[in-house]
Amino acid sequence: MPLHDDGIRLRHMLDHAREALAIAKGIKRETLDSNRILSLALVRLLEIISEAANRVSDQCRRENPSLPWAQVVSLRNRLIHGYDSVDHDILWQILTGDLPVLVAELENILRKGKT
Question: What are phi and psi of 90, to 5 degrees?
């Protein structure tokens, strides 16, 4: 994969993370249990973030060790293969704790042009 694609993949990660945060803004944790469409949308956005991370080159990953690449990439497999048992508490933790940090790191990487 050409290195310039890394910038595109990082941008995909950032855009979808921001979208997930925007969708989740103002909702309560319990809403994930009662609103299936919301839950499915958020899971899908996380899958896309993870898949985009998987497509980022090893070189770009090495140059940007501040991102927890292995965790982000493995999330897709957990969501896809565990489709029938998505834990909404973990989903909520990712949305409220992990995604804001991921967005900040991606913004920093893209701002510095480290792709």
Answer: -70, -40
